[in-house]
Design a protein that fits this description.
The structure is a single chain. The protein is about 35% helix and about 10% strand. The chain is built from eight helices and seven strands. The longest helix has 22 residues. It is an alpha/beta fold.
Length: about 290
């Protein structure tokens, strides 16, 4: 059982560091047993150096997949993810760069296929956010930057990945509960996450006839480096009791998200496409 942990005021700078988080996040639940659900599969995971992405990488590896992990600049975190994946007996290839750049996104796909000989699962997990409580103060540059990282990258990556995907392969996009509840201090971020939900639905309708499943995950508050590097950077006190507003009264752990991605990537989800899964601590969003 994942238990509530006390999260106190703290801050970091973007893109954030897993090693500096207090308390540390849980990446995989003790006793989680792999069942070869992704045996022989090849996955590309963006933002896989820390947080949800790291948990997905470890869970995928325990289920038999080799992974490529894309990260912005957090080399120590990325190296730790690589160590953890390799400890599961699988391969982990690291790719450093900025997903806001279309050419880099295309290179991520090409490099993964070149290294591993193919691609079966694309996990569009990377994202960023900044706090802004007044739309009139939200700069054009910030608006564009958040969309370029959170939304445009998913388009570039999916477009480049599709020629390599086939029957029973999957694309999984990370959305957010904020697409549904619309917090007033994350207008641009929430807008990107709403776009991701719609992108997921439309892309599924376009490719599901080829046997490619496209789904999204909309996490609630999860304890990852993005929180102290954005909410905490704005005001460290914002993290005091982070996640306690959920019906479960706590934040989620990355270890509770990894299995959701395993489910959507595996044939356990063979009749599911165009949908959004809501691991959010019990918040009902009707979407």
């Amino acid at each position: 059982m994942v238990r509530k942990v006390a999260i106190h005021a703290q801050s970091q700078t973007l893109p954030g560091s897993e090693a500096e988080m207090e308390p540390p996040a849980e990446m995989i639940r003790p006793g989680y047993r792999g069942a070869s659900k992704l045996e022989g599969k090849i996955a590309l995971i963006t933002g896989g150096d820390s947080g949800i992405g790291r948990s997905v990488a470890i869970h995928f590896a325990r289920e038999g997949a080799d992974v490529a992990v894309v990260y912005l600049s957090e080399r120590e975190d990325a190296a730790e993810t690589q160590r953890l994946v390799e400890a599961e007996g699988r391969r982990c290839h690291l790719i450093e760069g900025d997903l806001a750049e279309a050419e880099f996104c295309r290179r991520c796909i090409d490099e993964t296929v070149q290294v591993y000989g193919g691609l079966n699962i694309l996990v569009n997990n990377a994202g960023t956010q900044w706090v802004c409580q007044d739309l009139t103060e939200l700069s054009d540059e910030q608006w564009r930057s958040v969309f370029e990282t959170n939304m445009h990258s998913q388009f570039y990556l999916a477009k480049a990945a599709l020629p390599h995907l086939g029957e029973d392969d999957a694309i999984i996009n990370n959305a957010s509960v904020n697409a549904y509840i619309g917090p007033d201090f994350l207008v641009d971020y929430s807008a990107t996450k709403g776009a991701i939900v719609s992108f997921t639905r439309s892309l599924s309708n376009q490719v599901v006839g080829r046997g490619i499943r496209v789904n999204a995950v909309a996490p609630g508050p999860v304890w990852t480096p993005l929180q102290p590097a954005t909410l905490g950077a704005h005001d460290p006190q914002w993290l005091e009791g982070f996640g306690e507003e959920t019906p479960m009264g706590r934040a989620g752990q990355p270890s509770e998200l990894g299995p959701v991605f395993v489910f959507l990537a595996s044939l356990d989800a063979s009749f599911i496409s165009g949908q959004t899964i809501h691991p959010n601590g019990g918040t009902v969003v009707n979407g």
